[in-house]
Description:
By secondary structure, this protein is an alpha+beta fold. It has 18 helices and 10 strands.
Amino acid sequence: MExxxxxxGFYKKSLEERLKFVVEWAGLSKEEADLLYxxxxxxxxxxxxxxxxxxxxxxxxxxxxVNFRVNGRDYLVPMVIEESSVVAAASHAAKMxxxxxxxxxxxxxxxxxxQIHLVNVTAPHYKAAVILEHKEELLEHxxxxxxxxxxxxxxxxxxxxxVLDTSIGPVLAVHLLVDVRDAMGANTVNTMAESIAPILEKxxxxxxxxxxxxxHAVYRIVxxxxxxxxxxxxxxxxxxxxxxxxxxxxxxxxxxxxHNKGIMNGIIAVALATAQDHRAIxxxxxxxxxxxxxxxxxxxxxxxxxxxxxxxxxxxxxxxIVGGATRVHPIARIALKIxxxxxxxxxxxxxxxxxxxxxxxxxxxxxxEGIQKGHMRLHARNLAIMAGATGDLIDRVAEEMIKTGRxxxxxxxxxxxxxxxx
Length: 422
């Protein structure tokens, strides 16, 4: 009989009942079921409350990057990631950029955009003016939805109206600009957007089709910049080569995408450690990279008049330290405690600094030894562990694979059997 994934009321079942169903569906062994049910540092009841249809947990490594000095203050930076060499690379690059105040960074005020799209609007330009005529009334109504945010100094700040020419005719796009303070802001902004939608409908005679935050956070920009002496990076030739690699990324979108992926390796690792909405961060960053109509690198490295390597990074970061999973997940709270940050602004500046350092590390590796050396060393260790190596045997197996250039699982198994006997 063919299995069906149509399971009425699955979400109503207990966690244990859902897991039992999945075990039977997939034919999981007891060992596999026990592994899936290991929630680690996240209590099952919390996991079950965070999302729907929970059947287990999955752990990723939690690390700290060292050597970071941002705006004159030292930080240990929590990072959660599965990719080999990212944490080591970030730590190494941070060491190159430690002179003086280290990496400088500055975040804009935390302004997010709530969008209300109105369809079936006649005389759209005239109606746009009508909306702006009632701006103060609309802002006041939006702020009534979150008096606590207003008390903290945030709230709805401005209203912008755009007329879009679409395949279904003109559409009014109303942008509600909200200062969300130390929150990422999605819940607050969505609530405010939904609250003013009926008023907009009355003013325009149109229908509010969409009422939601925009993750194109163009008003929430973070900038990071740093200087490295040639001797700290590997010499003048390396500095020149890094600047050349940066110039290539500016000219070639195919390279720019991978260039930016390296930046996001660092930023998303910190985002995961602090339980941020990393999907929103990624979407916003890549949209910003293409804001001029062509995809470009988010950072640039050049050689200045002192022959120093100087780098600059600019991107939107929609992050928070209050609300959402950041406050629900116990490890996210610990990560914030390790960082010692007091505001979302400070966290955004650290994340941008990590992105810039990660970018430098990747570029330096590319123009010197190649990106694979560090990757393959850690990959060899992973293969050794998968093959059953423990303790000192892990490094012995990994070193042998690296020495011979045979970094494969079958060879790792062979080495584990051979060296274990010795």
